[in-house]
Amino acid sequence: MVCWQGPAIWIYNNAEFTDDDFRSLLKLGTGGKSRDDKKIGRFGIGFNCAFHVTDLPSFVSGKYIAFLDPHAKFLPEQGFPPRRPKGARINFMEKNFKSFYDQCHPYKMLNCNFSREFKGTLFRLPLRTFTTGD
Questions:
Q1: Which of 36-50, 72-86, 107-121 has the highest mean pLDDT?
Q2: Which InterPro entries does the UniProt record give (predicted)?
């Protein structure tokens, strides 16, 4: 995933994701917000528009960091038989979180140090390059 550590678009929202928000976003492309007047994505394709510029968006909200990989090409294989997930939500307040240092380092530049819950939601859309767009 080192190829995704370059330039990126950052998006901040002062609201934290709810469990329903996480579930919806990790089920990419299924919609479900059209009847909720309080949701930003109620008008159309919502977060799916991020995939015009990136293939591996991530975000921090509350005590979680999430990675979205709809092509199942970049996140590490899990389970047996091994397969790559299309998304992952990780509680960064847990003790074993230190193993994700490289993927989290860019967030530290924007005052997200993973030592306490993040107030709000911060998206990182690493820009697709010639190498990553293959």
A1: 107-121
A2: HATPase_C_sf, SACS/Nov_dom, Sacsin_chaperone_reg
pTM of the model: 0.78
Residue 134: inside a domain: no
Residue 2 has a pLDDT of 66
User: In whole numbers, what is the pLDDT of the chain averaged over residues?
Assistant: 80
* Whether the Cβ atoms of residue 10 and residue 122 lie closer than 8 Å to each other: yes
- Residue 111 forms beta bridges with which residues? none
- 133 within some domain: no
d(CA 127, CA 124): 9
Q: Which residues of 99-109 are buried (b: 16+ CB within 10 A; e: fewer)?
A: ebeebbebbee
Range of the structural domain that residue 33 is part of: 2-126
Say how many domains are in the chain. Answer: 1
Q: Quick check: is 8 in a domain?
A: yes
Query: Strand pairing of 118-126 and 64-68?
Result: unpaired
CB count within 10 Å of CB 50 equals 18
- pLDDT in the model for residue 15: 94
The two tokens of residue 24 are: 């919806």
The answer as to whether 14 is a domain residue is: yes
